[in-house]
Write a structure and sequence with these properties.
The chain is of the alpha+beta class and about 350 residues long. It folds into 2 domains: about 160 residues, 3-Layer(aba) Sandwich (NADH Oxidase); about 150 residues, no CATH class. The chain is about 40% helix and about 10% strand. α1 packs antiparallel against α5 and α14 packs antiparallel against α15. The termini are far apart. Pathway: tRNA modification; tRNA-queuosine biosynthesis. This is Epoxyqueuosine reductase.
Length: about 350
């Protein structure tokens, strides 16, 4: 490849067009200068806000210096893909139904890692067909990549006070993926922040995990507690979890910018196994084999069966008093796993302390 023979401005335009033809709603390009993001990350790590997520610091500066992660990288192509599978009013209603499981909307369908990785690989192949071989590497939330900071620099949106990337035309219900490349493409203008004085995401957080604007203490975050944490969920956070058994979308649900969010066009992101409406009792009764069968191809599978049952037990404990719930919980009261035992016993205790609902 001879860069001198390539019209880089035109190539950048073509890359964006190709990206959209592959299903990405937006494509941006940025350089690899992430010193500000590196400082913010280091402060966050020093405060211990990452909890048990040791992978956040074990790679050193590879996360904030792309050329250290993939040699030769001088630009990053950042892409976003919408995933909202249903109207937000329906999601809001489910959040208020204590006997149904709330699962973060990003994980209802097929594992996004695989789908977006394939699309990014296709994009790289199409670029290669135009200019010949070039250096690149595909990333989809699978390596030490500062994807949010990169997306902000690439103009895809700004990092909101809840730490998610926000776009004025699309809200925050989208995935991100990156191509690290060695082509000196022209870069896009970084997005400006538009949160203003709004604190809706901070105010709504059930566990007050957003400890300051743009700063999330993962140790308090329901997404961390239900997905990343492998041990016992601290008791102070169990009741605030409500019916959330995998992730939490409260901060996105209340964000004013999400009134502009569009439903996904990707069938793979639509709910599988009725996980968008399932009852807590039904999925608590899954055995380990059923769990792995029903979560095949899903991001949910990675938390494993023990965390799955742990999370549902907490949600059942938070539900209104119900003899059927107590009976269901008792089926796993003497489970061989101490984590399941602990959370089931806690849930039974919570249920027995509540007054039965009146039949009047």
């Amino acid at each position: 490849m001879n860069e001198n023979n390539i019209d880089l401005q035109q190539l950048a335009k073509e890359i964006k067009s190709l990206g959209q033809s592959l299903g990405f709603q937006q494509v941006g390009i940025t350089d690899t200068e992430l010193s500000d993001a590196e400082k913010q990350l280091n402060h966050w790590l020093e405060a211990g806000f990452h909890g048990d997520m040791d992978y956040m610091h074990k790679h050193g500066t590879k996360r904030t210096r792309p050329s250290k992660l993939h040699e030769g990288t001088i630009r990053v192509i950042s892409c976003r893909m919408d995933y909202l599978p249903e109207h937000m009013e329906r999601t809001k209603d489910l959040m208020k139904d204590p006997v149904r499981a709330y699962i973060s909307r990003y994980s209802l369908g097929r594992d996004y890692h695989k789908l977006i990785r394939k699309r990014l690989q296709k994009l790289a192949t199409l670029i290669e067909q135009k200019i010949g071989p070039f250096g690149y590497r595909v990333f989809v939330d699978s390596a030490p990549v500062m994807e949010k900071a990169i997306a902000e620099k690439a103009g895809l949106g700004w990092i909101g006070k809840h730490s998610n990337v926000l776009n004025k035309e699309a809200g925050s219900w989208f995935f991100l993926g990156e191509l690290y490349i060695d082509l000196p493409l022209p870069i896009d203008t970084a997005a400006e922040k538009h949160c203003g004085r709004c604190t809706d995401c901070i105010d709504i957080c059930p566990t007050q995990a957003i400890v300051a604007p743009y700063t999330v203490d993962a140790r308090r975050c329901i997404s961390y507690l239900t997905i990343e944490l492998k041990g016992s969920i601290p008791e102070e956070f169990r009741a605030p979890m409500g019916n959330r058994i995998y992730g939490c979308d409260d901060c996105q649900q209340v964000c004013p910018w999400n009134r502009f969010a569009s439903l996904t066009n990707e069938e793979d992101f639509l709910a599988r196994q009725h996980l968008d409406t399932t009852s807590l009792i039904d999925i608590f009764r899954w055995d380990e084999h059923t769990f792995f069968k029903n979560t095949e191809g899903s991001a949910i599978r990675r938390i494993g069966y023990v965390s799955w049952i742990r999370n549902i037990a907490v949600a059942l404990g938070n539900a209104p008093h119900d003899k059927e719930i107590i009976k269901t919980l008792s089926e796993k009261q003497h489970d061989d796993n101490p984590i399941i035992q602990e959370h089931v016993q806690w849930a039974i205790t919570q249920q027995k302390q509540k007054k039965p609902l009146s039949n009047c």
